[in-house]
Inverse folding.
């Protein structure tokens, strides 16, 4: 079996395991890429994941840079397709199902029951990001100010991101 | 609630491109900002429901929501446009960073500027969660489910699939129970 086909199969499997997104599938990704196949060493794996977190965009793209590191541009393409396509196809069919069931009176309340989990997990990633952002009073101050700004006003969050960066540059 | 605007195909792509490119530390906060507040494609509640469904499916919840929202407005073309808009820009940046890393043997250092941005992004994510909760005003038992999910993920650090497996059915059951009781009381 060629490397690319193996990559495609590995990432497709990971895609369907990734309930909760990239961070949820990280341990299994590490097991597959580092421990089982030996495609990456430990340090490279951690660095590439950190890189994907620092860059804008969905963190699941860590898979793409790992594919790129393992097998060049073709590896990037195969890893990205493998990671995104199976989950996207599933989402497509579920969307179709909800459209077909639109008239059902139980659908809206059932779906609304999932909302607190989604919001709770967004808040949890905020907490985890706060811990990662540093333990200085200034970092906490920026987190608190930004939370209130985004929560209580309708202005673009770009203002706090830029402000936070400027404060960091001046004081950190 | 009322004045939502259906996006054209180019608008769908561009909106998602903005979400992807601005999405430092994950895209959830920007996705809601662009879709609900700036472009008003969906109401707060509609968007939250799509996101909730995206959460229990495998894959990133915002990515799943892109497929579902794209499909709702423009079918297969919409799903493809929203998804590619979301991923193409960040992917290009990420490859550029990886090449830089290969050339110089080091990631561009986490400068103080980026530390400040990271702190602000953390606040942005929490502010988004508070804003959604405030706008949606879920009943008390669903608030409890959300707080428990938060604690399980942020304090106990339980695996996300486990959290989803436990709290999603609980939330659905509590929400349905409330709907049935309201129905019975009519």
């Amino acid at each position: 079996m060629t490397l690319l086909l193996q990559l495609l199969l590995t990432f497709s499997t990971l895609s369907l395991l990734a309930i909760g997104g990239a961070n949820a599938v990280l341990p299994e990704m590490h097991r597959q890429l580092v421990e089982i196949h030996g495609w990456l060493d430990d340090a490279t794996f951690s660095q590439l994941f950190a890189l994907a977190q620092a860059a804008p965009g969905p963190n699941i793209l860590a898979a793409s840079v790992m594919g790129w590191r393992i097998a060049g541009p073709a590896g990037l393409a195969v890893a990205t397709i493998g990671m995104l396509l199976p989950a996207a196809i599933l989402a497509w069919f579920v969307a179709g199902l909800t459209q077909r069931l639109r008239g059902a009176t139980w659908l809206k309340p059932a779906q609304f029951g999932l909302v607190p989990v989604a919001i709770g997990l967004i808040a949890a990633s905020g907490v985890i990001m706060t811990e990662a952002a540093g333990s200085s009073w200034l970092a906490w101050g920026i987190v608190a100010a930004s939370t209130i700004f985004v929560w209580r006003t309708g202005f673009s969050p770009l203002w706090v991101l830029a402000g936070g960066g400027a404060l960091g540059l001046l004081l950190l | 609630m009322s004045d939502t605007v259906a996006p054209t195909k180019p608008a769908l792509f561009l909106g998602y491109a903005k979400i992807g490119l601005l999405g430092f530390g994950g895209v959830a906060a920007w996705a809601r900002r662009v879709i609900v507040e700036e472009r008003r494609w969906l109401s707060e509640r509609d968007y939250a429901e799509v996101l909730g469904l995206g959460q229990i499916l495998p894959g990133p919840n915002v990515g799943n929501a892109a497929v579902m929202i794209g499909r709702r407005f423009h079918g297969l073309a919409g799903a493809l446009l929203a998804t590619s808009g979301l991923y193409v820009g960040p992917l290009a940046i990420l490859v550029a960073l990886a090449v830089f890393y290969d050339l110089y043997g080091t990631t561009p250092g986490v400068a103080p500027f980026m530390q400040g941005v990271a702190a602000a992004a953390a606040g942005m994510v929490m502010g988004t969660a508070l804003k959604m909760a405030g706008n949606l005003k879920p009943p008390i038992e669903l608030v409890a489910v959300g707080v428990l999910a938060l604690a399980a993920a942020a304090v106990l650090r339980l695996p996300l699939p486990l959290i989803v497996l436990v709290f999603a059915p609980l939330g659905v059951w509590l929400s349905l129970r409330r709907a049935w009781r309201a129905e019975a009381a009519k």
In short: The CA atoms of residues 164 and 170 of chain A lie 10 Å apart. Chain A touches chain B through 100 residues (CB under 8 Å).
